[in-house]
Amino acid sequence: MEPEVHIIEKYFQEVLLCFTMTNIRCKGGKEIDLLAINPKTLEKFHIEARVTVSGFKIAKIDTYTKKGKRIGTAHRIGLDFFNKEKFEHEAIKKKILDVFGEVPYRKILVVWNVEDDSVIPYAKETYKIEIWKIQEMLQRFGKYVSGSRDDVLRTMELVYLSHE
After folding, report:
1. Is residue 112 situated within a structural domain?
2. Do the beta carbons of residue 78 and residue 61 sit within 8 Å?
């Protein structure tokens, strides 16, 4: 499991008090990063992570110029790509139906950054995808991690404590 998915999973467990499943394999080589359910509220979540600090920023559209022409191969940076391949792909929807049944669930894309602030409401209005920034999750998460034996969480705890 990638460290960012591990952190996001622990956030859902420790902060939002959810049960989680990670790296769920689907037909056609597809995979869901994380599914979560809050046992008290029965709220359900499908979470995908695209976290990198290498300059990647989520954009509204993937491989089109301002003039609407397709450029090169898929860049995999646009909400249209993530909606189609990570949230609405038939194999993914089938697996979520198998796990959650026919009930509503929240779609969340966790990122490091967005192209501009308009991307966040656009994602919600156009695709019903919530965009969460991992830095904000990390800030909230710091006070919940204490004395963990998990390597990733222990590192987070040490970083958090060094900034107090």
Report:
1. yes
2. yes
Angstrom CA distances, 27 to 10, 30, 87, 93, stand at 26, 6, 14, 11
Rounded Cα distance, 23 and 30, in Å: 10
CA distance readout (Å), 64 to 45, 54, 73, 128, 157? 30, 21, 10, 22, 41
Q: How far apart are CA 62 and CA 46, in angstroms?
A: 21
Tell me: the pLDDT tens digits for 64-118?
555 655 455 456 678 988 999 999 999 999 999 999 999 999 999 999 988 888 9
Q: What DSSP string runs through 87-116? A: IS-HHHHHHHHHHH-SS--EEEEEES-BSS
Q: pTM for the full model?
A: 0.86
Q: Which residues partner with 107 through β-bridges? A: 46, 129
Phi first, then psi: what are they for 86, rounded to 5°? -110, -25
The total number of residues written for the chain in this structure = 164
Residue 123 half-sphere exposure toward CB, CA atoms < 13 A: 29
Full domain range(s) for residue 33: 3-157
CATH code (residue 113):
3.40.1350.10
Tell whether 162 is covered by a domain: no
Strands 19-25 and 129-133, sheet pairing: unpaired
